[in-house]
Design a protein that fits this description.
Length: 305
């Protein structure tokens, strides 16, 4: 048994969810992949999968072994990338996940530039607003926008994002303009469910934080939905600059509470906790850090009045 090939087969089955899909990814016959995993289980004297007619699930031992295999294969890929052909050129499939709005507006346009630098990297981009399981779903890298991240994650901050309280002129003409955070309690607010706690908006005042309990008719897990509602005059929203900068500049939305700023969010590159990064991951993270190093495009231009 070639243990390295068997471990590659095992990891592929975990990430693809089936022997057939894993075999297609590896370019092997399904019977070969199945045999390699069976031989690996026999060698370890441990069952790695619970098999049913409908699905495969990892056993507890399988979960432990998957983490170690993933780490070992990542180190091997890193070594090959650094010394292969004497160039260390990044190569292979790079699986990246990012939030939907941010990925569409500010990541998609950068992909051709990255490809021009690293033509041997095949980028597989998945846009999703949920907090994906990097290892469980087979991603190499996630871009996350947050004020903080769990300590167990390995992350690099790439940029900052201003958060702006705003509303349409039509809404303000009808409901009035709040001058203090506490006044938001009398307004219809549009809530982002991914924020915690999403029903409390906390501003920075002269004497410290000002938490305000807010409410409204709409809660959504996507900023585009809240932006559309705000543009329609349906309420007040807290939205990231990368989503509404053009609306603010054009007067379609009006910034509120300028004397009470909101703590900015960070744009983070997050990758599984391991000692060595594949060259393809490092190259992409370095590229984004360089691109957003000074003032990101979403923060450029004069601040709206």
């Amino acid at each position: 048994m070639d243990r390295l090939l068997a471990m590659e087969a095992f990891v592929a089955v975990v990430e693809a969810g089936s022997f057939v899909a894993a075999s297609e990814r590896l370019g092997r016959a399904t019977s070969t992949t199945s045999r390699q995993v069976s031989e690996l289980e026999a060698h370890l004297q441990a069952r790695l999968f619970q098999r049913t007619t409908r699905r495969l699930t990892l056993t507890e031992q399988g979960q432990v072994f998957y983490r170690h295999c993933k780490d070992l294969l990542a180190r091997l890929e890193e070594a090959e990338a650094e010394v292969g052909a004497g160039t260390g050129e990044p190569n292979g499939v790079l699986r990246v996940t990012a939030p939907v709005s941010f990925g569409t507006l500010h990541l998609a346009g950068l992909i051709p530039q990255f490809h021009a630098r690293h033509p041997r990297v095949h980028l597989n981009l998945s846009l999703d607003d949920r907090q994906v399981d990097l290892m469980g779903e087979g991603h190499d890298l996630a871009l996350r926008i947050s004020r903080s991240l769990p300590e167990h994650l390995v992350a690099r901050k790439l940029a900052s994002v201003s958060i702006i309280t705003c509303a349409a002129p039509g809404y303000l003409a009808q409901a009035g303009r709040p001058e203090r955070p506490e006044a938001l309690q009398a307004h219809t607010c549009l809530l982002y469910s991914q924020a915690e706690p999403y029903r409390t908006w906390t501003y920075q005042g002269p004497q410290g934080p000002i938490p305000v309990r807010v409410g409204g008719y709409l809660t959504a897990n996507n900023g585009d939905v809240l932006r559309a509602a705000a543009l329609a005059g349906d309420g007040i929203a807290q939205l990231p600059a990368f989503l509404v900068r053009d609306d603010l500049s054009a007067g379609r939305l009006v910034p509120l509470l300028p004397d009470y700023p909101l703590p900015p969010l960070g744009v983070y590159a997050v990758y599984p906790s391991r000692r060595y990064l594949p060259a393809k991951v490092r190259a992409f993270v370095d590229f984004l850090a360089e691109t957003w190093r000074d003032t990101p495009t979403w923060e450029q231009g004069p601040a709206p009045d």
